[in-house]
Amino acid sequence: MKGRAGGERGKTMRHLELYKGELAGAEGLDRAEVIPLHEQAQEPRPPRGTRRAGWLLVACGLTLLPWLYVLAGGLPATATVAHWPVVWVGLDALEALGLIATGLLAARGDRRHALAAAATATLLVVDAWFDVMTAAPGGDLATAVAMALGAELPLAALCGRLALRALSRHA
Predict the structure, then answer these.
(1) Contact at 8 Å (CB) between 125 and 145?
(2) CB atoms within 10 A of CB 160
(3) How far apart are CA 52 and CA 58, in angstroms?
(4) Which of 170, 169, 155 minimizes the C-alpha distance to 119?
(5) Is the model more confident about 75 or about 11?
(6) Cα(7)–Cα(120) distance, rounded to whole angstroms?
(7) For residues 24 and 32, is the Cβ–Cβ distance under 8 A?
(8) Which of 5-19, 67-81, 137-151 has the highest mean pLDDT?
(9) Residues 61, 56: Cα–Cα separation, whole Å
(10) Which of 62, 130, 154, 160 has the fewest CB atoms lying closer than 10 Å?
(11) Comparison of pLDDT for 170 and 130, the residue scoring more
C-alpha cells in the first residue's frame, strides 16, 4: 500500500466501507470494525541507556571535529615509528582473521557473518588508505595503489555487500 497513489488508497477504503455496510445489516453482528490495511510500523523506542550511549557517541564525534584541525596543523610531515613492522603485521593479521571468520560463518549460513564482514571491510579500507598515504613516491606508491585497487578495496566491497545483504534480509 505504501507506494500506491491516493486514488487507489481511496478506492480500497471505499471497498472497506461497502463491506462495513454489508456487515452492519447481517444477523448477529451489531457493528463491523474496519481494520486499516496500511498502518505505519513504528520502531520500538530504544531503552534509555541505549539512547544515552548513542547521544554520548554523537557528542564525542562532534568533539573530535575541532581536534582534526589541531592535528592537521600540528603533526610533522615525517615521523619515525619504533614498531612500524608490528603495526603492519598486526593490521594484516586482523584482516586475515576477519576474512577467515567471515568466510567460515557465511559458508555455515550463520547470520553473524554480517558482523565479521562489516568489521573486515572496515579493516581493508583502512589498510588501503594507510598503504597509499604512507607509501614513498615512485614504485612504492604504484605498488600500494595496485594492491588497494586490485585486492583490498574489492575484498572490502565484497565484505560490505555480504554484510548489507544479510542485514537487509533479516531486518
Answers:
(1) no
(2) 17
(3) 10
(4) 155
(5) 75
(6) 48
(7) yes
(8) 137-151
(9) 9
(10) 62
(11) 130
Higher-pLDDT residue of 3 and 133 is 133
DSSP state of 137: T
Task: Supply 61's cell numbers.
Answer: 564525534
pLDDT at 20: 52
Residue 120's Cβ-count burial label (10 Å; 0-12, 13-18, 19+) is buried
Query: Residue 124 and residue 157: Cα distance in Å, rounded?
Result: 9
Decide: pTM greater than 0.85.
no
Q: Give 129's DSSP letter.
A: H
User: What is the rounded distance in angstroms from the CA atom of residue 111 to the CA atom of residue 167?
Assistant: 8
Distance of CA 61 to the CA centre of its chain: 17
| 3-state SS record for 23-58 | HHCCCCCCCCCCCCCCCCCCCCCCCHHHHHHHHHHH
Does an H or E element contain 146, and which?
helix 139-147
What are 122's three cell numbers? 572496515
* Residue among 157, 107, 149, 106 at smallest CA distance from 131: 149
Q: Return the residue matching grid coordinates 565484497.
A: 158
For the record, the C-alpha cell of 32 comes out as: 463491523
Name the residue among 96, 92, 116 with its Cα closest to residue 106. Answer: 116
